Amino acid sequence: MQSRNARGAAGVVGPAAYAAWRATVLGSITESIEQRLILELAGEVRGLRALDAGSGDGTLACLIAERGAEVVGIDVDPAMVAVARVRAAKAGLNVTLLEGRLERLPFGDETFDLVVAVTVLCFAPDGGAAVRELARVLKPGGRLVIGELGRWSSWAARRRICGWLGSQTWAAAHFRTGGDLKALVAQTGLYVGAIQGAVYYPPVGVLARVLAPTDGWLGRLTTFGAAFIAIVGIKRV
Prior knowledge:
41% of the residues lie in helices and 21% in strands. The protein contains ten helices and seven strands. The protein is globular and about 40 Å long.
């Protein structure tokens, strides 16, 4: 499940990889499921100040802005930031795109009402420190929504094999369970809210098309077998 990071089997990432991923049946179905879950967990965003940490090519940041939020996106890759700026400008959306690292966010304490971070913690050297930084910039009563790569899925198994075969990206990636994510969020002092899985089908386009209708039902039952797990943390007032 390459998601917004559009990381292929060899771990290749970049604006072209995003576009190629979305052009496939597997990519379009998977990204739609993930985005729908993240937006559902984010809730009503109109009038909020929101941060997309690890904003990639700006797709999710623009979707949140379309719903009425004032959005800031930050990404470590300047090429991604450039593409995201073009996307937001063409759409006429109020999105500010910056270069920066998840572990050292260039914002003051309690700046945002909503923070989202999708498939970025798995590549952070210190996931705990990264989540603490995300919580730091969240206002009291604000909501943190994290979407991550699940540990026990056919997607994770394939990526581990790629890591064993020499992919530096997947060799360094850290896959997590729902329990792992709960612990990461709880250690910041945030209240742990909803947690839900998604993308239970194997990474095969025809199977995605057939099995996608059952995805939401499975996600409400268990996170085991999910290639994507999303969790909400709420900052206490």
